[in-house]
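Q: Please design a sequence for this.
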């Protein structure tokens, strides 16, 4: 199991765990804020800016409950979660209407009146909070109903932008510099919006934006390595360099220069990390290709091995019959090679096999292929060749072996040939015919070529295979060529 796949599985588990933790946090804070509003007792820490309003607390609580239900397979539970998200959307839209329409009195105004205006904190949530919860509720509805993936991710990004603006504003407040958005979006509300939208994204880690970061690919590695730094570094820099200005008296020019240097350094670090990952991926790809080539290549002769031959034949035979191009096999076996090994040793035999591999590569056309089938046996795949063309091809190969300047003793080879036809649905039948022709060549005196046709061709040259054969150089019908038994 490769490292990227393991990291991908851990990322998916981490996302689901985060989704559960985010839902529990939202439920706890939403419930605590609601009780704090009702009892006027401080239950949550003061983080600056406005306290969370009652409608915002209810939206947090309901969103957390809906998020906690997203993992269930029960339909009624998911419908209940959808109802809770709908209530969040209604509460947020109602608050926005109160801000945009002066005469409108909605749910928040009614709750204000019912609780005694002036005796308790206001009920209506801040404007940006209302926008955030409107988007968050819509995102939850789309996640629960598996609809409109692109729109769902756009809503999530909108919530993310609002929450990040609140956090950046909080950095300015901590640095005691300038105005902030906290009067329009309390920091606790902004943080919970951030947790909530990331929780909805994490609840379905195999879809949307999180799908890339959980993938066992280079893109997944990059996302897991860079997303979090890219999200947090701007906030950290905003806080750090404003703090240098306000607390330590560093001039704005120096602080801005340092900010530019650190920002450029962070960007350079991310580029280096991407380059390192790409380099690693390319090295792994090259190593994989080398291993695949080694697995498909005979180490002694440099030709394809039997595994590669089976793969090539299956690919050729599984092509559509109407589009399949003709091809034939030649099976070669070195004559009296055991005696050659016994007389001169296995090292000499290995040298002879290497020379055979060189001769076959030099004799065949670029589109043809040679394979070491086993021992001193070789198989040649001749593309575009019919049975009547094999004697000339085989003679060229046999002559190259016969005429080679062998240093110890002349070597010859016997060959058997067969043409692939429509009756061949597996490589075994084609190899069996070529092998039978080879043994016939050896029985008839060696250093010669014999060939055989399939039963369909021997029946009289009828059928699609025979018709296709006649279309190539007008050979005689069927497989009744010279040398055929």
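A: Design:
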């Amino acid at each position: 199991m490769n490292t990227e796949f393991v990291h991908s599985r851990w990322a998916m588990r981490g996302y689901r765990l985060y989704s559960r933790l985010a839902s529990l946090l939202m439920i706890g804070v939403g419930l605590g804020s609601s009780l704090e509003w009702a009892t006027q007792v401080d239950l949550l820490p003061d983080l600056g800016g406005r306290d969370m309003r009652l409608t915002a607390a209810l939206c947090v609580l309901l969103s957390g409950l809906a998020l906690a239900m997203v993992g269930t397979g029960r339909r009624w539970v998911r419908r209940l979660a959808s109802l809770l998200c709908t209530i969040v959307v209604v509460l947020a839209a109602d608050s926005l209407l109160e801000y945009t329409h002066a005469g409108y009195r909605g749910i928040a105004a009614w709750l204000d009146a019912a609780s005694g205006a002036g005796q308790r904190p206001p009920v209506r949530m801040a404007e940006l909070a209302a926008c955030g919860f409107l988007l968050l509720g819509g995102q939850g509805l789309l996640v629960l109903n598996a609809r409109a993936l692109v729109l769902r991710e756009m809503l999530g990004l909108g919530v993310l932008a609002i929450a990040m603006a609140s956090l950046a504003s909080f950095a300015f407040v901590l640095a005691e510099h300038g105005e902030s958005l906290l009067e329009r979006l309390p920091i606790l509300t902004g943080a919970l919006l951030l947790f909530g939208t990331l929780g909805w994204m994490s609840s379905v880690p195999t879809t949307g934006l999180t799908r890339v970061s959980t993938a066992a690919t280079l893109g997944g590695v990059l996302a897991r390595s860079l997303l979090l730094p890219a999200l947090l570094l701007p906030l950290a820099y905003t806080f750090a360099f404003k703090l240098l200005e306000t607390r330590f008296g560093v001039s704005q020019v120096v602080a801005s220069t340092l900010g530019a240097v650190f920002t450029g350094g962070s960007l350079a670090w991310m580029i280096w990390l991407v380059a390192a990952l790409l380099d690693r991926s390319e090295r792994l790809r090259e190593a994989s290709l080398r291993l695949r080539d080694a697995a498909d290549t005979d180490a002694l002769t440099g030709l394809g091995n039997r595994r590669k031959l089976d793969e090539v034949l299956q690919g050729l035979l599984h092509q559509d019959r109407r589009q399949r191009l003709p091809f034939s096999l030649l099976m070669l076996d070195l004559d009296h090679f055991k005696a050659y090994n016994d007389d001169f040793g296995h090292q000499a035999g290995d040298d002879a096999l290497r020379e055979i591999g060189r001769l076959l590569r030099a004799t065949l056309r670029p589109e043809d292929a040679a394979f070491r089938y086993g021992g001193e046996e070789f198989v040649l795949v001749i593309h575009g060749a019919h049975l009547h063309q094999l004697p000339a091809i085989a003679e060229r190969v046999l002559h190259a072996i016969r005429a080679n300047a062998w240093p110890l003793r002349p070597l010859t080879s016997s060959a058997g040939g067969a043409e692939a036809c429509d009756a061949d649905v597996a490589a075994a039948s084609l190899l069996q015919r070529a092998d039978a022709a080879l043994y016939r060549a050896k029985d008839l005196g060696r250093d010669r070529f014999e060939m055989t046709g399939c039963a369909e061709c021997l029946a009289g040259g009828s059928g699609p295979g025979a018709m296709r054969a006649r279309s190539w150089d007008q050979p005689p019908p069927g497989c009744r060529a010279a040398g055929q038994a």
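Q: Thanks. Anything notable?
A: The chain has three domains: 3-216, 218-296, 306-470. Residues 458-485 have pLDDT under 50 and may be disordered.
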